[in-house]
Amino acid sequence: MTKTIRIEGMSCSHCAAAVERALNAIDGVKAEVDLAGGTAAVTLSREVADDVLRQAVEEEDFTVLSIA
């Protein structure tokens, strides 16, 4: 399963790296962040609730606009 997370507030490569690291720390998640697009492409190898993904991003002080 693949999901796209729209993220607000990332302004540099360090921001993108922090989000990517936080998402990849979740078991079953492989994330790639597109700084210019303000998104993270997330591939799930197991079921992961949207709330878990949202919390990981928001703990890095960024805002999740949507998860689709």
Q: Which tags fit this structure?
A:
68 residues; alpha+beta; Alpha-Beta Plaits; 4-stranded antiparallel β-sheet
Please, could you describe this protein's structure?
The chain has 68 residues and is α+β, with helices and mostly antiparallel strands. The chain has a single domain, classed as Alpha-Beta Plaits. It has two helices and four strands. It has a four-stranded antiparallel β-sheet with strand order 2-3-1-4, with helices on one face. Strand 2 and strand 3 form a beta hairpin. The chain starts with a strand and ends with a strand. The model has no long low-confidence stretch (mean pLDDT 98).
List the helices and strands and how they pair.
Layout: E1 2-8, H1 13-24, E2 29-34, E3 39-44, H2 50-58, E4 63-67
Antiparallel strand pairs: 1-3, 1-4, 2-3
